[in-house]
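Hi Y.,

Following your request, here is the sequence exactly as I used it, all 763 residues.
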Amino acid sequence: MKKLFKKQKETVDLNRRSFVIGSASAGLIMAFAPSIMSFDLSAAEAVSQEVFSPTIWWHMTSNGDVVINIAKAEMGQHIGTALARIVADELECDWEKVSIEYVDTHKKWGFMVTGGSWSVFQSFKPLSQAGAAGRMSLIEAGAKILGVKPENARAEKGRVISGNKSVSYADIVKKGKFNRTFSADEISALPIKPANKRHLTGINQDFKALDIPAKTNGTAVYGIDAEVENMVYARPVIPPTHFGSEVKKVDDSKSKTIDGYLGFEVLKDPSDTLQGWVVVYAKNYPAAIKAVDLIKVDYKKGETANVSEDDIQAEGKRLVNSSSAGTLFVDEGDVSKARVNAKENIEALYTTDTANHYQLEPLNAIAEYKDGTWFIHTGNQWPSLTLPVLAKSLGVAQEKIVIKPYYLGGGFGRRLYGDWIIPAALTAKAIGRPVKLVFTRADDSLFDQSRSASTSLLKASFDKEGQFNGLEQAFAAGWPTKSMAPSFMPPGIDGSGKFDPFSASGADHWYSMTNHRARAINNELAQKTFVPGWLRSVGQGWIVWGLESFIDEIAHKIGQDPVQFRLSMLDGKGKQAGKAPESVGGAKRLRNTLEVISNKVSSIKLGKDEGIGFAVSAGQERTMPAWISTAAHVHVNRQNGKITLKKLYAVVDGGLIIHPNGALAQIEGSLLWGASLALFESNAYKDGQLSSTNFNTYLPLRMNDMPEMDIEFVDSNEFPVGLGEPGVIGVAPAISNAVFNAIGVRLRALPMKSHHVKNALNA
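Below is the corresponding structure, written out as tokens. Let me know if you'd prefer a different format.
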């Protein structure tokens, strides 16, 4: 297997680029090139001269080996294998001859991001076309060798075949001459294989993953493994407040007693990302750890030095109860009129505590200045977001920075915005040597981009006949996009400001409702206390928690079965019909998953104080829905309040499944993450900082709490969507609804702890 630590991204503008396929010393190269240049030279000349800096999607050696470039970050989601399957399936090559390479941050790769469960979804069409163009070119060249017309030949598993004659791709590359350009119009017209012609993608395919061997035999290189010559080790001193801290005085007299201690730097960051930062550096990392523990830094603290979790939650509650706060995200029908004319209205407040990423590999980066260029060694999910800020911090052009990719020991959204690179780079610039900066678990926790505490107020109205006829949802939290990518924020439909779409998605659900309003509100106290982060499932994880629990409340209020109530609203009418290519079938596909899962659990015999609850979700966004129904089987101990999650069920319609084993792993992991957030994970801000900084006090799901899982994928030929995050979304409301069905109490705070159960039972 080829190098598995290099990276970048392949989402490019097909309107401005053309495919070129040409012969080269390495064999056959297939690349994107700017249209304006690709016609000035022949494809062969362009490839051989490299005049257009081609974005090389794949190349084939004279032995028939296919190397596919991966411009995504690998963090356990098997993205390299999935993307390679797309190319290889259309190319009709032998999977045993396929390998992958991760590319660095050269501008030719375009906008680079690995997040939002977008990788397969955004890459499927262009990668399919790249493979199809290669297959067509190989058939043409192979047919010429065989002495037949291209229309009388076909490609199959690395060979071009015509009747009883065939020639291998390897021989075609050796003997043939490739000089083919596909215009942008020709690219868009390239056909993508129908499902019945695929041999590498689809729910029933099972081929080896290309990324697993290196992870299991120890050859995979993670960011924390990287080393360069002459480097020193560093550890940061995390300031008492994220914003507004200033260093007044540093006393390193005790640090000087540590063997290997070299000194410290007070960082001045032109980007203003880091405020009040001190970094200690040493000959080895243990010395750096000890030196930070002994150094004394006198600070002027920022204005949030006394902010607590209760303060943030209280502000959230104030905001959702204010009709003037925030901006409208959804406004259909007339919710206000429905409420005024209602026979009855009900409302409920749902909250979530602060939660953290706690990825296995703590943050780390090496910064090295060499030959006029800054080289950064780290694992980063969103280099295109990181590079401009890093360039500003260093005072150089972005082109003078190269981020070299490595495996990520967990990302989950924390490694999207690479703010941890900045202290490594500024320290290296200050001392004139390469710096490897590694955060301890506690450092990592204190610098984490927390999933903000959230508050959701939901209101339902019922007409004169007592039927449900209106839903209003107001939800408040700190917004990641406001802090890190404000240009991604669209205006609200009422023109009263912009909102974070990733902290609103999910409120624009797939239920048909006559009157529906959703209001997105930024909790500014959270926003100025820390940098809110994108954590796996992002806003859907807390917005749908309230929504799907409240849907159950509405169903019970009107005396309907919660599953049947949902099915009645998943009619696929109007905007809920979906659209091509990403949401063909719309709400009816979500309805199907709910019908399947309902039938699956219908025969389960429940014991005393046991219940099964349901939830539906369509994350990540309406523009890329993964249709999932979730069911949770729980037991609740009335004496001590403990909730035991016995089993989770999920029925998933993700369209065409590219890499079945990878998809299963993604859903398994996301279901367990959802269970962890639902029942265990909680942190609290105290005096402007997180109070839990390690696994002795921050308690995620443990092995002895693992539920059984039953996961079923719908066999679908529709456009593939992402599956990395959506499985998280439905778990918490399914558990909450199961608890109600088990013991008749409604829990409205995450995580659902035993004291919540006991308090509800005693209320």
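Confidence is low (pLDDT under 50) at residues 1-16, 35-41, 49-54.

Thanks again,
Q.
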